[in-house]
Write a structure and sequence with these properties.
alpha+beta, Immunoglobulin-like, 4-stranded antiparallel beta sheet, 2 helices, 37% strand
């Protein structure tokens, strides 16, 4: 057998080993991919854009993975007036955090529609910060609790 034919005979074995190595490396990288995922907001209560006849007494953020109240801050603005930073506690599950709105809810004397805005910042268990805001309207004249689309109301509807 010549040197040339021996060299060609070894290539299929080498190609097989390189292919197996690449496949193994790809499998390891694919298995590690979910570890890079961060917590994502999946729901709020009250929902963003909703309209409520009575002021809510709580505000809850729900995520797709655990978050802690100790690394969460929420601030409420009502009708353009900023209220103190809200007290936050762990929600009903490890994936939710809840703020107490009862003090502000009981202090709503007038009957006009009012825009409520909650700004939040949460640090997930993996250390990734998540921040955003949720807007909803409290309108004592509303007959449809928790539904509606902001900005589609009459001339008295608060602007987002």
């Amino acid at each position: 057998m010549s040197v040339r034919s021996t060299r060609h005979a070894r290539r299929p074995g080498l190609l097989w080993r390189v292919s197996a190595l690449l496949l193994a490396a790809g499998s390891v990288l694919m298995a590690a991919a979910p570890a890079d995922a961060h917590a994502e907001l999946i729901a709020t209560s009250p929902a963003s854009g909703s309209i409520h006849a009575v002021p809510p007494t709580e505000f809850t953020l729900t995520f797709n993975e655990p978050v802690g109240a100790e690394f969460t801050s929420m601030a409420l603005s009502v009708g353009g007036r900023r209220v103190e930073t809200l007290p936050v506690r762990q929600g009903a599950t490890s994936t939710s955090v809840t703020a107490d709105l009862s003090a502000e809810a009981s202090a709503r004397p007038d009957g006009s529609p009012t825009l409520w805005r909650v700004d939040y910042r949460v640090t997930s268990d993996d250390g990734h910060p998540i921040q955003g805001l949720v807007k909803f309207v409290v309108d004592p004249r509303s007959s449809v609790e928790g539904r509606g689309v902001l900005g589609s109301g009459g001339r008295d509807a608060p602007e987002l």
